[in-house]
Amino acid sequence: MAVILEKQRVVLRFKDAVLMTENYGGTESDELNLSVCGGDLVLVRLARLEQTSTFADACAGINRPAIGAVYFLGRNWPEQPPDQANALRGRIGRVFRTGNWINHLSLMENILLSQLHHTRRSARQLRDEAAVLAGQFGLPGVPLGLPGNSTAADLQRAAYVRAFLGRPSLILLEEPTAG
């Protein structure tokens, strides 16, 4: 019996890209050339902690590279009209280095926010999927309280629910080995 390996589609590609970390004196990255295919697990180690968010923002088309290009699902981020860029961002899940919770919204609202904004899925569909994911990540259900009233462990689990919601094509984990 022969094993046939399918070539996976390139999901993310950095081509001769140089990123700028503006918050820390305009630090410039080395030139980045990277291709990530569906199903790949890639660890990107950066020299400075503050570059983590800059790199993730470039992956999500939020920051443009100073030089070169970043492609997501074959599309060069800067060439996308705003509505198309927003739709593409709906295909990216992210666990932020700082949590990135909006304190006056419930955890449920925080979890659903990106998908409600970037996709056309109903709130009910998203709540149902979030409940299944919550169970898979060890929560008894989707947390309903405010972020400030939740334990660090529950916030971390909720962050993974948020990142995996919508079956994203790319999941960005900023500092996956931290706390």
From TrEMBL:
One of its GO terms (molecular function) is ATP binding. GO terms for cellular component: plasma membrane. Pfam families: ABC_tran. InterPro entries: ABC_transporter-like_ATP-bd, ABC_transpr_LolD-like, P-loop_NTPase. Residues 53-178 form the ABC transporter domain. This is ABC transporter domain-containing protein. It comes from marine sediment metagenome.
